[in-house]
# Entry
Amino acid sequence: MEKHMVALPDVTGLDVEDAKQALRSVARDARKRLPVAVRKDFEAQWVPTALDFIGDAKTVACYVSVNNEPETHALCEAIAAHGCELLLPKLGPGLSREWAWYQGADDLAVCAPGRPPEPSGEAIGSDILATVDVLIIPATLVDRQGRRIGQGGGWYDRVLKQVSAQTRVGAMVFPEEYVDIDLPQDPMDRPVSFVILPDRWGACGKA
# Structure
């Protein structure tokens, strides 16, 4: 698998939020430069890899990719075809961030500017996450201990507090985004146990 190296800046001496933003900015720029052909190849690889990670799970929560994130549109279709019930993020009343059941690619629609496409069905409160077997989330960077940097809103850190201890949680990142440095974290940040790369997945530190 081809790896496009990302030269991350030295953030020693910066406070946590400034350090995260510096790392996030470099990672985002690298994603923009990733060739379309490479991105398409990774997209195809991720489907069987993520399905292997899911295994015999019955209920899965995932995300709909936007803005150069690891692609999940084909993956969502594959998860449903795999026989899983699939939850995706959805805006609820008062712009609350909730979930809804996936009902096929044609059902997804953009309901608010800047938001990813979402299912049309009824918004379900985040308590539903306690019932999922597998959670697949996005990240900008993940280190060998499972510390992650996301997009900066903290939403998935709150999500990680709501899943059960038995839920298998994996973050999807491009190969060069699984890094050897220790990523800066604050008390609100929550680690993941697994990383899902295009051609393989594994426990953080062993993938």
Notes: Strands lie at 59-61, 85-91, 97-101, 134-138, 141-143, 148-149, 168-172, 178-179, 194-196, 201-203. Helices lie at 16-33, 36-54, 73-81, 155-160.
